[in-house]
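Please predict the structure of the following assembly.
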Amino acid sequence: DQLDLSEGLLSCVSSSEACKASAEPRNYGLMDGLPEAKALMAGIMEVSPEELVVGGNSSLNLMFDAVSRAFTHGVTEGATPWGKLACVKFLCPVPGYDRHFSICEHFGIEMLPVPLTADGPDMAEVARLAADPAVKGMWCVPKYSNPDGGCYSDATVRTIAALTPAAQDFRVFWDNAYAVHDLYEPVSVLPIGAAAKQAGHPELVLQFASTSKVTFPGGGISAVAAGPETLNWIKKCMFFQTIGHDKVNQLRHVRFLQDIDGVRAHMRRHADLLRPKFEAVQTALAQSFEGTGFASWTSPRGGYFVSLDVYPGCAARVVGLMKDAGVLMTGAGATWPYKKDPKDQNIRIAPTCPPVAELVTAMELLVLCVKLAVCEKRLEELGA
Amino acid sequence: DQLDLSEGLLSCVSSSEACKASAEPRNYGLMDGLPEAKALMAGIMEVSPEELVVGGNSSLNLMFDAVSRAFTHGVTEGATPWGKLACVKFLCPVPGYDRHFSICEHFGIEMLPVPLTADGPDMAEVARLAADPAVKGMWCVPKYSNPDGGCYSDATVRTIAALTPAAQDFRVFWDNAYAVHDLYEPVSVLPIGAAAKQAGHPELVLQFASTSKVTFPGGGISAVAAGPETLNWIKKCMFFQTIGHDKVNQLRHVRFLQDIDGVRAHMRRHADLLRPKFEAVQTALAQSFEGTGFASWTSPRGGYFVSLDVYPGCAARVVGLMKDAGVLMTGAGATWPYKKDPKDQNIRIAPTCPPVAELVTAMELLVLCVKLAVCEKRLEELGA
């Protein structure tokens, strides 16, 4: 159903005539993106078009490239490539996004978990850890964080912008994956780019976004925004890397979504489909577990996930029971670095995919599995 | 005109209904490509679908990624990352493609030029140089080589397939950019994949191709093929890199081009547009320079370039004179590693872009500039 909302994307650039734009999208050139697409992504990311480069289908690819480039060539011109260092560490707010952690593992980056509070990462802990010059980066999902769905407070964003890490080439990897993914009235997270400039740290942050959950996960566009020096370096390195990403698809997105107002209108249609699903999850959890001590959970106002914390030591068992019953969930531990949830309690619920009726059944099953696992655990603890 | 030949690509997948394929192209999944697209690219590359991964708009990006991956993680599981080595060298048949050489420069790879003969690279020289374990790779454009337009002979392909370099992790970077780009009757270059398997070197070659000059340079698809171990490694590493490339665009290419027969029919329409341009270049050069000693040139049966060798020491002067007269050509030296043509004689002519009338004028100008530069040079040599 969500994919069909973007059916217009398939037909909005359907002739040579329709390809007429500020530049020819079908030919070589414009490595950093079609100007109109830069403007569209700038609207989503709350930056200026000249502060970003448009990428291909996957913003994860842009994040990977940023880390890979840092390892082979440094984060900016003249910076030491991280590959030359004995040790590189990243701060990882937890629970967090498994694909961020996977990139770190792939490059041998040591991950330091930082607790995520209701206002964002524990910034006292971040400041303490960033005093180590081996700490080179930090993952952030500022709005409707994956998986807990929380939003960073203005104070947290300002504190991140004002951060003075020991490493000059420290970068905040700001994955704004759910920038416009509101289920109810839009929530505003303070734009980090402006805040970082104001704090005198224009190069501190790399921002990422994509249309994966706006149009098609299998046919969208993405973008990376950065400070002027870092962006120049990205473009210099990109010259060696590519002849440029798909500009015809960039034009499709411009024609279909128009601008940030068009994006918001489109996202309201997604929200109409998703809201009943999120509410079904909330209803099931509240009816079964409110006041029981079996589990606690988040109630996101947007994004794609609900984070469920079950009684400690039960998450893997719950996911295992669900699997035995035929429902595949994100693996327990996936939201922690090295897939190791120290308390074995966090489970990521993705309510977006199944139809509501199936979701209700799946939630009934989840409730049963949680009850069973927690009872087993409590009995074990009581030595029974 | 060439872009308009592929107008049908824009409308062949224009509804949700039209997205029905062996798998859902709009959603996540199928990181290595839509099965139908793998089959299409396999037809172009003369390999099996399971031997390749479909990429995004740019095969250069796949080549860059292959080199970058080799530097950070090695060419295959367990191989030493090239970034850990003091020195990495590549063999570069000359004249060659500047973007290949740029990737090498970007990664600090030392480039060793190898003469390109009418049959392909000088294989005695290749074998001699590949005895150095620091030599890790070799660039090849086997069909309608960039810029000279020649094709590797069967004997050369077999000799490459049988190569036993000192380095276990040596790879041939087989950029089959013009695999189907015949101007006249199709020319067959022996498939390197089969030859390498037959020679007992299934992992020796990485093959690349794209539809940049088939459909849209700004909206095509690409692919990389490799031996089973290397391809597994590529897929393993890709998991960390991306959620997958644009599968909707892959489906568009399948619908529009159908299969290798469809591709060949489509390329005949390109050839009809390009042939007069290539012939205008040949006519201009033959009329002015045949038997003069001012210049020699290639007469490609396909591809995108004509290689012009002017009297030694004159190439930079010719390109400079052309620029002064308002015609921008590929920089002199671009076809050599480090942009240094030791004899300053090679110029790459790209006849594809301008309309025939403009091309004829540009060629008249080029002829004049060559005459002027060569006369200057000869006078200088005669001490006049």
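The mean pLDDT of chain A is 97. Chain A has twelve helices and eleven strands.
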